[in-house]
Amino acid sequence: MIKVNSVDSCLHSLTISDIPGLIALSDSVGWDYDEAEIRTILSIGTVYGHKDTSGTLLSCAAIIPYDDKLASIGMVIVHPSSQGKGFGRQLMKACMTSVSTDTTIMLIATPEGEPLYKNLGFQTVDRIQKFIAERLVPKAPRQNEVPDEFEIVPMALNDFPGVVALDKAAHGSRRTHFLETRMRQATTCLVAKNRSGNIIGYGFAVQGPVNLIAGPIVAENAIMAEHLLYKLTQHHTGRVRIDVPDEQATFHNYLKQTGFTQVSHPPVMVANGHSLPRRNGTYLAIGAQIYG
């Protein structure tokens, strides 16, 4: 437990016993974190939060360290009744000081949080586009675009090392623990293999309480990403969310043609560095904003 300036609240490192409080806190700001997602976050990162003297959770923020001097901050929430007390700054400082000073810290900012992050030294280095399809009717990519160079198949356990290596080149950091945990959480895990049987793309789909989340998706090009997305969603007729880096304009166009609407365009910000780790341009959709 970490003492803070307020006499009636303290900053804690949270555990699985705090999951009901975290869900309630998420609901208070209209977010949709559920138990499965929070368990994933707790298993791969550290979550801090303020509690009042009765044990009620008033705030939270999570930091997820990856393998190669990179960490991601997310799930930064302060209950509406407790905003304006400096909790957000205290949460961010706790997250930032939990990793080494040579670890690049990234986050995807909300409009409400962006001024604080700038004040703490974060700078915008990229943006992502959040797309929602309210009721998706999956549409197959055009037949003349179906390639002979790869096939998409369910992911097997022995495919995992290849997925980790592919993800590192795409994301810029090795994320073994995240991928292992996310794979268990996912409803569908697919890989794209070339004629030699080598893994050249992959995609996960995770069912949340509101959305089927399509991502991460790593693909050599937009055509492969389209085929992965189609396979991930072809048996789903409900709401789908996908978050795509700004540079993937061809994939953006496909999404718009298949019923997706862009609903926000948040900045990707970093501290302890001036850029994201080097990426190879094959990161077509992120896992979720908290994971970067």
Description of the molecule:
The protein starts with a strand and ends in a 7-residue tail after the last strand. 27% of the residues lie in helices and 32% in strands. It has a 15-stranded mixed β-sheet that branches. It has 292 residues and is of the alpha+beta class. The chain has helices at 19-28, 35-44, 87-96, 114-119, 160-171, 176-185, 222-233, 249-257, and strands at 2-3, 9-13, 46-52, 59-65, 70-78, 104-108, 123-133, 150-154, 188-194, 199-207, 212-218, 240-245, 261-264, 267-271, 283-285. Helix 2 (35-44) packs antiparallel against helix 6 (176-185). A hairpin with a 4-residue loop joins strand 10 (199-207) and strand 11 (212-218). It contains 8 helices and 15 strands.
Brief sketch in words of this structure:
The protein is of the alpha+beta class and 292 residues long.
Counting helices, strands and paired strands, the structural category is: alpha+beta
Report the C-alpha radius of gyration, rounded.
19 Å
Please outline the major beta sheet.
Answer: 15 strands, mixed
Kindly state the percentage of residues in helix: 25-40%
Q: Report how far the terminal alpha carbons are from each other.
A: 28 Å
**What series of H and E elements makes up the topology?**
EEHHEEEHEHEEHHEEEHEHEEE
Overall 3D geometry?
A: globular
Report the uncertain regions: 1-8
The total count of helices amounts to 8
Q: Report mean pLDDT, rounded to a whole number.
A: 93
Could you give the count of β-strands?
15
Strand residue content:
25-35%
Helix-strand layout with pairing:
Blueprint: E1 2-3, E2 9-13, H1 19-28, H2 35-44, E3 46-52, E4 59-65, E5 70-78, H3 87-96, E6 104-108, H4 114-119, E7 123-133, E8 150-154, H5 160-171, H6 176-185, E9 188-194, E10 199-207, E11 212-218, H7 222-233, E12 240-245, H8 249-257, E13 261-264, E14 267-271, E15 283-285
Parallel strand pairs: 5-6, 11-12
Antiparallel strand pairs: 1-2, 2-3, 3-4, 4-5, 6-14, 7-12, 7-13, 7-14, 8-9, 9-10, 10-11, 11-15
